[in-house]
Amino acid sequence: RIVVEAGVTIDAFVKIKPAGVVGEVIIGENSYVNSGTVIYTGYGVCIGKDVLIVSSCTIAPVDHEFRSREKKIVEQRFRSGKGGIVISDDVWIGANTVVLDGARIAKGCVIGAGSVVKGELEEYGMYAGNPLAKIGERSES
Predict the structure, then answer these.
(1) Judging by DSSP bridges, how do beta strands 104-105 and 58-60 pair with one another?
(2) How far apart are CA 106 and CA 94, in angstroms?
(3) pLDDT by residue (tens digit) across 3-26?
């Protein structure tokens, strides 16, 4: 199931691609997904309201299994999920960012371009890099 709420803008060349298991993709009101972004369904993606996803991002709530040497990687299918991806309201994700299964991006976060996001982030935190590091917080002004 794919749900796109009112006021959402999905730019040209955005893909929402079924992959792995059957998860939902929900994009909240007034969010914007810029060109070149790929959202895999995997274990599910929930994008909040007023989220800005800049160009060429990958939202991937799924991961291939590869541990066995006895089988080709393509034969091993997918790993167990980490709960999908949740992107809360009022988040800005910079260009070329990769968001991995299990990521929880809290309300008001800013993610710098080219980052790799996994795990839980704090509200209004500013993060960047690979490995991802907190580099500041949004001010209250």
Answers:
(1) unpaired
(2) 15
(3) 999 999 999 999 999 887 778 999
Q: What is the pLDDT of residues 66-125, one digit of tens each?
A: 888 999 988 888 877 789 999 999 999 999 999 999 999 999 999 999 999 999 999 999
Take residue 31 and report the two structure tokens written for it: 């969010």
Distance CA 23, CA 114 (A): 25
pTM of the model: 0.92
How do 125-128 and 133-137 pair as beta strands?
antiparallel
Amino acid identity, position 31? S
Residue ranges in 2-122 assigned as alpha helix (H): 73-76
d(CA 1, CA 23) in angstroms, rounded, equals: 7
Rounded Cα distance between 118 and 69, Å, is 27
User: Which ranges constitute the DSSP H helices of the chain?
Assistant: 73-76
For residue 18, is the peptide bond before it cis, meaning its omega torsion is within 30 degrees of 0? no
Reading the block at residue 90, the tokens are 């009022």
What is the C-alpha separation between 140 and 24, in angstroms, rounded?
34
